[in-house]
Amino acid sequence: MNNPMTSRAKRENYLVFGRPLISEDEIAEVVDSLRLAWLGTGPKVARFEEDMAAYKKVKHAVALNSCTAALHLGCLAVGLQPGDEVIVPALTYCATVNAVIHAGATPILADIDPATQNICLEAVAAKITPRTRAILPVHFAGRPCEMGPLMALAERHGLMVIEDCAHAIETEYHGKKAGSFGICGALSFYVTKNLTTGEGGMILTDDDALAARVKILALQGMSKDAWRRFSDDGYQHYDVVEAGFKYNMMDLQAAIGLCQLQKVEKYWLRRQAIWEHYRENLGDLPLSLPAPVEANTRHGYHVFSVLLARESGLSRDQFIAGLHKQNIGVGVHYRALTEYSVYQDRYDWKPEDYPAAMTVGRSTVSLPLSAALQDEDVEDVVAAVRAQFGR
């Protein structure tokens, strides 16, 4: 990458935030599915599940149509009931808490660590009651939660751990893959994720019974999935064993995922280089940059979020608008859950009760971080950010 400190003109085309890197092999694999006319759940979904289970070093991987579906079915499959409480971070995407609500349980917020932006273990411990059944940590931005102490805390209180790994495909804690610590983990393959299928998700687990129930719940509660029912073995009648959902993944999606998984390490290295370039070239600005990667962990490098310092003289929205005028797209990960009216009305959550999440959520901006970025794109981002402060 060149020297971003030199003056750069406004880029001509808009840099879309989170644009995925799609190559000819993904296109060919999708076209192959079209030629085979196997568009729904079929052999490519099965291969994708096998490959991801091997990569994540878990016994089972069940492909679904979103991470939200994975979290929802995970909460149902572990047996959460009305009245059960599940502790979640106060700063996360709304899908995390919505999955708990749709499973009939009650979400309980714990504040975040302002440095890592992951759930604060002390806050979790303070929220445990006799009604607590599970903890749902989020490996925010690809940084692993402190899974050793968290799992020990859960074990002391007899709690289940359901991992939200939407940002954490490549993430590891002390040599162990994110999503393999708790009773289950949920992956996202949304279009902006490190590995994409356009839309898609997956449950990871070593629990045979849990995996079997997720498969049934994901396809209307049927005892046999579509691929097996229409295999070369001939038609097989199915039973409906419980009222399930329509959450299965299609072969068209898995076709993309199969190719993406083969390049996941290559793309991780590219995002690591961009991450380090941002840290090297934005460190003198009135911004808080992501904390360094902790020892004996592997960061997924999914989100590079900066926090606007008070002395910057800019509001978060002014900063976003300024980058937009320079044709740079950005994201916000995230506003605190306490800022949303639906949860305020339902649970009486107040932002000031979770000060770290409130502060981060009101000042955070995510810069483009994708393997699709060229060196020139990265330099445009750095130049545009520096220009907001007259540097």
What does this structure look like?
This protein has 391 residues and is of the alpha/beta class. The protein has 2 domains: 24-262, 3-Layer(aba) Sandwich (Aspartate Aminotransferase, domain 2), CATH 3.40.640; 264-387, Aspartate Aminotransferase, domain 1, CATH 3.90.1150.10. Helix content is 38%, strand content 13%. It is built from 14 helices and 13 strands. Helix 3 (67-77) packs across helix 7. The chain starts with 23 loop residues before the first helix and ends with a helix. The relative contact order is 0.17. The mean pLDDT is 94.
Q: What is this structure's SSE topology?
A:
Blueprint (H helix, E strand, L loop, with lengths): L23 H13 L6 H14 L3 E5 L2 H11 L7 E5 L4 H9 L3 E5 L10 H7 L4 E4 L11 H11 L2 E6 L6 E2 L2 E2 L6 E5 L12 E5 L2 H11 L7 H4 L21 H12 L1 H19 L4 E2 L8 E2 L5 E5 L7 H10 L15 H7 L7 H9 E4 L7 H13 L4
Parallel strand pairs: 2-3, 2-4, 4-5, 5-8
Antiparallel strand pairs: 1-9, 6-7, 6-11, 8-9, 10-12, 12-13
